[in-house]
Amino acid sequence: MNVTVNVNGKPYTRDVEARTLLVHFLREDLLLTGTHVGCDTSQCGACTVHVNGEAVKSCTVLAVQADGMDVKTIEGMGTPGDLHPLQTGFWEKHGLQCGYCTPGMIMASAELLKHNANPSEEEIRYHLEGNYCRCTGYHNIVKAVQHAAEIMAQGGQSGQAADD
Amino acid sequence: MSTLKPNKVLRKKVTRRRVLIGLGTTAGVLVVGVPLALNAGRPALVEYVVENGTGPQEAPFNPDLWFEVTASGITFYAPKMEMGQGIHTALAQIAAEELEVKPEQLTVKQADTARGYAGGTMFTFGSNSVNALYTPLREAAATLRELLREEAARQLGVPAKNLTAAGGQFFIAGRRDTLSYGKVVEGKQGEWTLPDKPARLKARKDFKRIGRAMPRVDFRDKVMGLSSYGYDARVDGMLYGAVARPPRYGATLAAATAGGASAQPGVSKVVIDLKANFAGVVADSRTRARNAVKKLDLRWEGGTNVNQAEIDAQVRAGAGVVVRRRGNVGAALKQGTRIEAEYSTPLVAHAHLEPLAALAQVAPGKNGKIEVWTATQYPQKVMDDIHAALGKDREILLHPTQLGGGFGRKAGQTAAVEATRLSAATGRPVHVGWTREEDLQQAFFRPPSHHILRGSVSSEGRILGVEQFTASGDIIWPASMPEFVKDTIGFDPGGVLGLFMPYDIPAYHVTNRREALPVPTGFWRGLGVFPNTFAVESFADELAHAAKMDPLDFRLNNLPDTEDGQRLRAVLEQAAKRAGWRTPPPAGRARGIACGLDVNTASAQVAEVSVENGQIRVHRMSVAVDPGMVINPQGAKMQAEGSVVMGLSSTLHEVLTVKDGMIESANFDTYPLLTLRETPQIDVDLLESGDTPYGMGEPIIGPVGAAVANAVFALTGKRLRDLPMRL
Ligand code: FES
Ligand code: FES
């Protein structure tokens, strides 16, 4: 069955089976492998994307349900010269190690910052509870989101990460 | 890339640990490959010099370290796998230090098996990457620097000593112009020859990169979603595979037919090989392959029906092999205050976030070349398994991808063998990516352990004697090793890590025993370190309380006056200081301390806990680590923090149980990991006691469980001796 999904601002039409999950549609049909799969069952958050502006675990949505919708993935967040503040934040504050959870963390955090420009540590922890990370000590992730909030408050998209 | 072809061996000799090198040149490119050989327990260097013309087969060893120098910079092919531990960055800064280049002038790429020695250096395990490569990599980089310096001197017509290397170029004494490394390579005519004298390594006081934070070389791609993991490997024309799984460990495929699978949409092939216990499906999407594999008609036979209670009964400390016997423990236990305790740790999973995955492309013909892209810690193991499955004469080129976590689980990569079988059967590239359920159940696990300790302390708080019995499922012994050999040896070397109490104990007997379990067990971060340290450092705390002494003072009182003892003392004192050990904890909270020594790294931790709504809550972990020497403080701290979180997850949550011969949990709903919300404040202090960097990936996980258990005891008076902790 034909579906058309606007992904990162571009319409893609593909013939997919009804049972195809959005995450597989993105990764296999569109070759957007930045959205990761950790569990296929809505429990790890690695596959988080935005559907019509809301953070959604893309393994819980069928591709056909996204027909006609706007999907944003990590690939649509920034460009090498113009990273999204969250990408800068995770990079500069070392909010990752293997990086497998990172796209999901960034997409989930983006939703938080949309509704709450200056989240407290507690709010970040609460909001990201559904995103597992097996590598980090987690609290750099909190710092990364706070750092991104600061960059955004200063109106900045920052392009270059520099380590401390 | 043709410039990377190493060339014919001209001369080769094993030197006294001196440098290097394979030189291969084409115009404007200098390629240097350095083979390492194991010698006297550390990598030594084997020299060989090559000439243009032929392929790598003729090299006596595949080079372990590859550099490529061009006008645009230097590329270093990292021989270790990046699984989040930051090894590519650490190696880059070691190389950049001696090369005298800025980090941005050095590009790090993952070596594949054509540019690296899959069997040796590429195996990424045991927290040993930095430790093993620190000196050889410096020697190689320094030699490359001197090679360039001599050639620059020749081109400039000045003595080499008049040239100072910095920022990827040579500054010329008394002149304003400079000559970049790239220009030196461009201007080179003819063969390169190695300098006669070994290159001098920089003094530590002159280090500009080692010991400082450096931007992670892998983070830009990772935050952009551009990094490629095993699950992400893609080539044109690829198909997707799925494989049938036995319902019980050890079950064999007695009969199999395609059943309804062939008729499923998109299925291009059903592959059945009873001898290999293999039945799989190839289809044009992962969804279709996974669906079709359920329609295969399979009859599994045999295997184990074991249940958890039987495993618990099997892993009981008692008889075994005496691995330490010092003093008369029987007599010692008759003196002072005597206590006895039993501890246990359960079967757990690695739960790396990226499930096993691989892409394989097998060229047609019986001996068609095999190309594999996969996330593995141990390329040689994957290649051996593929050779065993498809014939040993086939050439294999393995491209290690980024790993979405490893923790020992990716020492093998079954998905790579499966993808290779399916590709060979279809003639198409095939990707196999496991589900979380497959990853959790069709795995090997950290084995359960059981510990019995008896000990006595004097009224002055000195440990008089300890008798210790430990049992663990196998860790290192491979399934392929004959049982009688394992039984003759009697214990598994992996189970010895973290086993010994680091204290000065006049009478100390340790008996260890291995158990071959019907459930697959094996490597897990730090091997025995986490289970053993939990037991011995909980027991040390019990001894301290038996002696009515402060647990920190008790440890300091019993540490030996050796180098290790002093290093442990230092980390204990630092962790205690950071935690405010000598000041009362906030109301409703208490602290516990624990320490350990693993792969020469000393660490100590203080946990601060409370109990809320009947649940243990960890508020703070204060960690002090002495890894000898630190290459990248930021990276080292991150490794420590990650170890604490993984250790806490094991301490508070993780347990697998077996029913009817299979792990019961299939996903994170019944196997929850520690979440961000539960994670405490973690402070890490790094101490340096020498000039050799030891490991950072595993040692810190050791004391986590005991620190928490000891804190819970201090708070509640309840001694929790079984993991995961239940109040
Ligand atoms: S893959 Fe979607 S939540 Fe884990
Ligand atoms: S960085 Fe590896 S799972 Fe988060």
Account of the 3D structure:
The complex is a heterodimer of chains A (164) and B (727). Chain A has 164 residues and is an alpha+beta fold. Chain A folds into two domains: 73 residues, Beta-grasp domain (Ubiquitin-like (UB roll), Roll); 69 residues, [2Fe-2S]-binding domain (DNA polymerase, domain 1, Orthogonal Bundle). Chain A contains five helices and five strands; from the N terminus they run E-E-H-E-E-E-H-H-H-H. In chain A, helix 2 crosses helix 5. The longest helix of chain A has 15 residues. With 727 residues, chain B is α+β, with helices and mostly antiparallel strands. Chain B folds into three domains: 200 residues, Aldehyde Oxidoreductase, domain 4 (2-Layer Sandwich), CATH 3.30.365; 152 residues, 2-Layer Sandwich (Aldehyde Oxidoreductase, domain 4); 308 residues, Aldehyde oxidase/xanthine dehydrogenase, molybdopterin binding domain (Aldehyde Oxidoreductase, domain 4), CATH 3.30.365. Helix content of chain B is 26%, strand content 27%. Chain B is built from 16 helices and 31 strands. A seven-stranded mixed β-sheet of chain B has the order 14-15-12-22-19-20-21. In chain B, helix 8 packs parallel to helix 9 and helix 12 runs parallel beside helix 16. The chains are: A alpha+beta (164), B alpha+beta (727). At the A-B interface, helix 1, helix 2, helix 3, helix 4 and helix 5 of A face helix 4, helix 5 and helix 15 of B. Bound molecules: FE2/S2 (inorganic) cluster (2 copies). Chain A: It comes from Deinococcus marmoris.
